[in-house]
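#onboarding

Welcome to the new folks! Below is a worked example of what a typical request in this channel looks like: someone posts a single protein sequence, and someone else replies with the predicted structure as tokens. Don't worry about understanding the tokens yet, we'll cover that in week two.

Example request:
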Amino acid sequence: MFDDEGFSYQDGVLHYLRMIGSKETACRGNKTGQCFARNKQAITVTKKPIGELRIEDDRLILRYWGCEQSYRLYEGDDYMTVKPLGKNCFWSQERHFYIARYDGRVTTSGK
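Example response:
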């Protein structure tokens, strides 16, 4: 399963993605639409730019609202864990993310 929220990286910019239209019921807490099957062939998302992103070795550096926050990448078998290195920016949260490549087709909605 994948969460209904994710990220994409294109031309030096990190984007926030939110899947729309999921009917999946096997999500955390049995909440309908909060996830989708990893092998789903296609999804539709909304897409919003977050900020400039640089990738350096095992780090991501996100620049947003004039502040740079570094994140460390930890490689797993089927996914990577992304954790902040300290809390440099007021907008930074201390939570970490689990990310993996989605191989299906992604269509961006005009909503």
